[in-house]
């Protein structure tokens, strides 16, 4: 039996349909979630994200999903993708200071690197704390596109090097997972990551 995966639709996601297609290709069943009621009917959660931290939090609030999502993440395996990982943090500094979902003790800050920002294209991840989501993906490259990074010291599962700067590319805390890259744009490696998520 395939568990129902809820893909949060909160206005700014942008990449929601490519994520849905990639999860289905990996063998998952997806329901696009617009409301608290729909959120209650799914077993797992994926939080997509393209755009700004501030807008993402505002859209979740406007959709009436903010508190419901926090509650649901307490028990349901959850995967945050790119901005979806960033908003798991306590604070974001994009366009001013914005409170995040506060489920990971982290802050989201601009990438300060002596190279072109946004960091864009395929890059390797270095797994420093193996988990089931990243199983079998040790030597793979994933597609990144971001100008901000998650600063965290306790929940890091993978790091990535960009122009001599190491940033957090994956996190995990209990049943919560986050990846800074876009698995839906990462070819076979991304499909395998979604397979791992489905199997959790």
Number of alpha- plus pi-helical segments: 6
Decide which structural class fits the backbone. alpha/beta
As residue ranges, the low-confidence spans are none
Count every beta strand, where a strand is a DSSP E run of 2 or more residues.
Answer: 14
Overall radius of gyration: 15 Å
Structural domains: how many: 1
As laid out across the biggest beta sheet, the strand order is 2-1-3-4-14-13-12-9
CATH-scheme architecture: 3-Layer(aba) Sandwich
**Major pleated sheet:** 8 strands, mixed
* CATH class descriptor name: Alpha Beta
* CATH topology grouping: Rossmann fold
Q: Report mean pLDDT, rounded to a whole number.
A: 95
N→C terminal distance: 13 Å
Q: Give the topology string: H per helix, E per strand.
A: EHEHEHHEHEEEEEEEEEEH
Strand percentage, roughly?
25-35%
CATH homologous group name: Class I glutamine amidotransferase (GATase) domain
Report the principal-axis shape.
Answer: globular
Helix content: 25-40%
List keywords for this structure.
Rossmann fold, 25% helix, alpha/beta, 8-stranded mixed sheet, 200 residues, globular
Structure description:
25% of the residues lie in helices and 34% in strands. The longest helix is centred in the last third of the chain and has 13 residues, at 187-199. The protein contains 6 helices and 14 strands. Strands 2-1-3-4-14-13-12-9 form an 8-stranded mixed sheet. The chain has one domain: Rossmann fold (3-Layer(aba) Sandwich). The chain is of the alpha/beta class.
């Amino acid at each position: 039996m395939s568990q129902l995966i809820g893909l949060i639709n909160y206005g700014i996601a942008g990449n929601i349909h490519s994520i849905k297609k990639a999860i289905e290709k990996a063998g998952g069943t997806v329901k696009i979630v617009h409301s608290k009621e729909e959120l209650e009917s799914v077993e797992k959660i994926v939080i997509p994200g393209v755009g700004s931290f501030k807008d993402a939090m505002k859209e979740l609030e406007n959709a009436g999903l903010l508190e419901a999502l926090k509650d649901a993440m307490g028990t349901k395996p959850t995967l945050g993708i790119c901005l979806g990982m960033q908003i798991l943090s306590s604070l974001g500094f994009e366009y001013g200071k914005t409170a995040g979902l506060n489920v990971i003790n982290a802050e989201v800050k601009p990438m300060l690197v002596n190279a072109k920002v946004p960091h864009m294209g395929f890059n390797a991840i270095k797994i420093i704390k193996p988990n089931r989501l990243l199983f079998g993906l040790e030597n793979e490259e994933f597609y990144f596109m971001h100008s901000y990074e998650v600063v965290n010291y306790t929940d890091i599962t993978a790091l990535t090097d960009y122009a001599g700067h190491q940033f957090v590319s994956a996190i995990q805390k209990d049943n919560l997972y986050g990846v800074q890259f876009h698995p839906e744009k990462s070819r076979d490696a991304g499909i395998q990551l979604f397979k791992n998520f489905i199997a959790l």
